[in-house]
Design goal:
Shape: globular
Radius of gyration: 18 Å
Distance between the termini: 42 Å
Bound molecules: adenosine-5'-triphosphate, magnesium ion
CATH topology of the largest domain: Rossmann fold
CATH superfamily of the largest domain: P-loop containing nucleotide triphosphate hydrolases
Oligomer: single chain
Order of helices and strands: EEEHEEEHHHHEHEHEEHHH
């Protein structure tokens, strides 16, 4: 089973103060790991290490037990601000990697249409990117990441720029895309409820230097996939208690 691991990684930028200190994290297929923590505690730095955009000063990043030194197709990344190609249609954006791989137009289109269906954009393949809303563009970014059939999906605040209503719909979409793809998923968010709703495991980080202070297993996302309504999950006593508990950890508040 595919397995991504950060093993005792530490990081500093240009010899400055340590940004991450001795952080270890495991993500296996079928897991949805969500990182929360105050601004500047090193969440994006951690994701960039996992993606291979940065290399740690100490410690190792391993995929299936082998150390990796850079980005790889098995680790797809979705950024907060989508970087879509405005001169290509929606479908061609989704199938961009297939185009680079020399796959023909008909097959590319078939792949793109299947993924556009997964992200709720069926029928929009011929649209130019500029005719899509922000939320739709974010879904194209997700479809493009899924096109590589990655073992791991790494997302840095993918829903951060969306309004509250769109964001709730996108959370369900992320859950179903995760469920359908089986990709081990790592997602950063500022939303505590979003973290609880999506995660199988929540990682709480704290700054100075960035480190993991708590790991918490939750099952609200699995309850959602099993058919329970979002409203009933978010109103349940277990969800409300977990939210308060998590806020206490993030802001290092004393438990009342
Ligand atoms: N390229 C860089 N060069 C120097 N310092 C950096 C660089 N990127 C980030 N930092 C510093 O490293 C620390 C962690 O930054 P990082 O972006 O990982 O935090 P974050 O938890 O993602 O914050 P946010 O929630 O605001 O996105 C911060 O103090 C930041 O200023
Ligand atoms: Mg960040």
């Amino acid at each position: 089973m595919p397995h991504l691991a950060l093993e005792n990684v530490s990081l500093r930028y240009d010899g400055g103060a340590p940004v991450l200190s001795n952080v270890s994290l495991d993500i296996a297929s079928g897991e949805f790991v969500v990182i929360v923590g105050r601004s500047g505690c090193g969440k994006t730095s951690l994701l960039n290490l996992a993606a291979g955009f940065l290399t740690p000063d100490a410690g190792r990043v391993l995929v299936d037990g082998r150390e990796v030194a850079g980005p790889g197709a098995e680790r797809a990344v979705v950024f907060q601000n989508d970087a879509l190609f405005p001169w290509l249609t929606t479908a061609e954006n989704v199938a961009f990697a297939a185009r680079l791989a020399g796959i023909g137009p008909a097959e590319r289109r078939q792949q793109a249409d299947r993924l556009l269906d997964v992200v709720g954009l069926a029928g929009l393949g011929d649209r130019p990117i500029w005719q899509l809303s922000g939320g739709q563009r974010q879904r194209v970014g997700l479809a493009r990441a899924l096109a590589a059939d990655p073992a791991f999906l790494l997302m840095d605040e993918p829903l951060g720029a969306l309004d509250a209503m769109t964001r709730e719909g996108m959370q369900d979409l992320l859950l179903s895309a995760w469920d359908a793809s089986g990709a081990g998923t790592l997602l950063i968010t500022h939303g505590v409820e979003e973290a609880l709703y999506l995660a199988t495991r929540i990682i709480v980080m704290a700054p100075g230097p960035g480190r993991i202070i708590r790991r918490l297993d939750v099952d609200f996302g699995r309850r959602r996939l099993a058919g329970e309504s979002a409203r009933s999950i978010k109103a349940s006593p277990a969800f409300v208690a977990a939210r308060e508990d998590l806020l206490d950890s993030i802001f290092e508040r004393e438990a009342a």
